[in-house]
Amino acid sequence: MTMTSERTAPVATGVQRLPMAKAINAGLRRALAEDDHVMLMGEDIGRLGGVFRVTDGLHADFGDTRVVDTPLAESGIVGTAIGLALRGYRPVCEIQFDGFIFPAFDQITTQLAKMHYRSRGRLTLPVVIRVPFGGAIGAIEHHSESPEVLFAHTAGLRVVSPSTPAEAYTMIRQAIASPDPVLFFEPKSRYWEKGEVDLDAPADPLGLDKARVVRPGTDVTVVAYGPTVATALKAADAAAAEGTSIEVVDLRAISPLDVATVAESVRRTGRCVVVHEAPVLYGVGAEVAARVTEECFYSLEAPVLRVGGFHMPYPVAKLEHEYLPSLDRVLDAVDRTMGF
Amino acid sequence: MSHDPTGPLSDIGLVQLLAPTGERVHDERFDTYAADLTSDDLRTMYRDMVLVRRFDREATALQRQGELALFAQCEGQEGAQIGSAHALAAQDQVFPSYREHGVAHVRGIDLPDVLRLFRGVDQGGWDPTHGFHLYTLVIGSHVLHATGYAMGVQRDGLVGTGDPAKDTTTIVYFGDGSTAQGDVNEAMVFAAVNHAPVVFFCQNNQWAISEPTSRQAVRPIADRAPGFGIPSVRVDGNDPVACYAVTRWAAQRARDGQGPTFVEALTYRMGAHTTSDDPTRYRTSEEEETWRRRDPIDRLRAHLVASGELSPAFEAEVAQAADELGERIRTQVRAMQAPAKAEIFEHVYATAHSVVDGERAWYTEYERSFLDAEGQR
Ligand SMILES: Cc1ncc(C[n+]2csc(CCOP(=O)(O)OP(=O)(O)O)c2C)c(N)n1
Ligand SMILES: [Mg+2]
Fold first, then answer.
1. What are the domain boundaries of chain A?
2. Alpha-carbon gap: B184 to the closest alpha carbon of chain A (Å)
3. Fold of the domain spanning A17-198
């Protein structure tokens, strides 16, 4: 590892194996070093480095004015971030856990999402809101939720979720560079999984709005994002052993939804299964199913199936694996679509 | 309860520099902040108030004629708005709620443009990048934006430089009802701990639609701020000179790096909440009459007349300017057209978004399907 000291603090370079939390940290560090107007705001993100340590070390290197421990008020965090953005800053807010974003829901959906439109493009709000989301970490209530679709339903927001450390590193930087507000959903159950990250990688040409085929296949398209991409890849391995070839599409963004990439895949496979932790009712899977039906009706061999959470509050940790879209439930859906 | 400290007639600790009769009242603390006001300045304030009242009445009439969907009057609050706005410098930033037509006017917004929102042809109506942000209809939300903006000004190093052309204050206007919102209280926390150069200007106009201030607070609203560590002052909101003075004080504190200040201006909304409201259902005409006698325009006029500073010629000129404004409002509003249909797809995002692009393309095709071969509808 080499360290350069351009600007105020060291920025790592080269190719490294990093867990996703550290990859995001590296992306934040780079953004802080590259642009004085980037600032981080959130609860316990300073000396503590955030409850997941995603901002570890940044306070020490960039100081109080760039890495700000805020009062414990989510609406206040987002509301003041809007004001800072109006003054030319690029705030990156951390919401400590998914279930605690709701005090800020009004500021995000009513103010942040609409100001560019209301001002007829005169005002832009380059605010990023980072949200550790999803379950499978054995947490107590309000710490395992997947509220992303509530934001994707709101025009004016971009909603993305990385699935690997490398994606997380480039996507967080692109989110910060975006003139639009971005809800950045970090799959907390994957924070500690390592992957190769090229810290000098140029910006991903897929940007923040294109899906990626992460494993080619011929029989079934499995669409996933964030934490369920790894589940889909495992399902693909397991299905391959039984002779079924799964193509995995990582959506990366759920707003905008890259229908073209999904449709292109389904036209080849004829079958589609969508997997997410969020409840299936009115979810991303429902939207994908509707769009795939519109775009690929004559290519479909079976109805689009959805695998996801049930219509209930997130259950107790000891039973969360009954609720989450497990490998077996994905394979079950693959079997059902193949048998249709 | 024998005494309601937040009630309409309460004047606890009220700063006043002009009595309702127009007589100059002395105030040890705030006299100095009004000392630089020349008679020209006072006449300008008077003129602004008269113009804004004409605007208010024209707009109300236009709504009655079906030209506006809705209108929110500021009548009665001109003193608070024009007095405070005159205390601001060019570089200062204002975050209004939805009734700050007086402030808009002083900040250089052409008043007819304010009606674009109420006519339903725009959701803003002016360029918000020149010191006067868009109206915010969600009560209290913008108080956080102002606080964040002020935190940005602070980071820009534009506080406490001693250069009056640089040091910048941010002022946010909101109502008594809004003070119950979490966002307003969160804003005070953020402003206090960050020492943000922001002025919280609460116009306590006694009513939040049909709810009296006593439904929002059991003590004077200004008393809340010191609990957050923010100094506050109560001012007679129908006294433009006092509003000017306390705002200058508060703005100077912000510019000097002394942090946030809270101003509660006691005033009265003489009109209905909006053109859709019916105040006879919740308040008495006696109460309205009491406040009519404290009218801010009458007060400043009485002061100027008594000091021999209001010539008939000037009054005639103001009356003529008001007539011209009225005429201009009527013609401009009637001429305000909705944007082109396809405009609804513009500016949802700052950069291309495939869903919006897809829907726009579909809509364009759909519209085209109504055209015949010659391209006629
Ligand atoms: C969050 C929110 N809740 C309710 C409303 C509906 N509403 C509009 S104005 C208003 C009263 C506000 O009273 P106040 O803050 O005193 O301001 P005023 O209208 O008196 O100027 C209400 C309830 C709103 N606009 N926003
Ligand atoms: Mg009110």
1. 17-198, 212-338
2. 9
3. Rossmann fold (3.40.50)
What's this model's pTM, rounded to 2 decimal places?
0.96
The full length of chain A comes to 340
Give the model confidence (pLDDT) of A38-52 as tens digits. Answer: 999 999 999 999 999
Going by the DSSP 8-state scheme, the letter that residue A143 receives in this structure is S
Give the number of domains in chain B.
Answer: 2
**How many A-B residue pairs are in contact by the CB < 8 A criterion?**
146
Indicate yes or no: CB of B147 within 8 angstroms of CB of A209: no
Query: Are B145 and B255 in the same domain?
Result: yes
Q: Indicate which ligand has the atom closest to the C-alpha of B206.
A: 2
Quote the ipTM score: 0.96
Q: Which CATH number fits domain A212-338: 3.40.50.920, 3.40.50.620, 3.30.70.260, 3.30.70.890?
A: 3.40.50.920
Domain that residue B313 falls in: 31-335
For the record, the structure tokens of B47 come out as 């003129």
pLDDT of A95-147, one tens digit each? 999 999 999 999 999 999 999 999 999 999 999 999 999 999 999 999 999 99
Could you tell me if the CB of B268 is within 6 A of ligand 1?
A: no
Contact B147 A79 (CB under 8 A): yes
Q: Which two structure tokens, joined as six digits, stand for A236?
A: 């693909």
Give me the residues paired with residue A274 across strands.
Answer: A223, A306
**8 Å CB contact between A61 and A26:** no
Q: Check if the beta carbon of residue A317 is closer than 8 Å to that of residue A140.
A: yes
Contacts of B183 in chain A (CB under 8 A): 75-76, 79, 106-107
Give the three-state DSSP class for A156: coil
Q: Is B177 in the pocket of ligand 1 (CB under 6 A)?
A: yes
Is A143 considered catalytic here? yes
Residues B80 and B214 occupy one common structural domain? yes
Contact list, A117 vs chain B (CB under 8 Å): 123, 347-348
